Amino acid sequence: MTKGEQTRQQIVQKAAPLFNRKGYEGTSLSDLMNATGL
Question: Would you say the pTM of this structure is higher than 0.70?
Fold first, then answer.
């Protein structure tokens, strides 16, 4: 798995709970950045 694929997988794993809790439109880019540490 490449570094890019690993990063993508990390984002997806961290984003899914946020989307479930806040909804797609309620989740900000800042929320995603904080959750993933990017």
Answer: no
We report the CATH number of the domain holding residue 15 as 1.10.10
Task: Give the per-residue SS3 of the chain.
Answer: CCHHHHHHHHHHHHHHHHHHHHCCCCCCHHHHHHHHCC
Per-residue pLDDT tens digits of the chain, which is 38 residues long? 899 999 999 989 999 999 999 999 999 999 999 998 88
Name the residue among 3, 6, 14 with its Cα closest to residue 37: 14
Q: Which domain holds residue 23?
A: 3-36
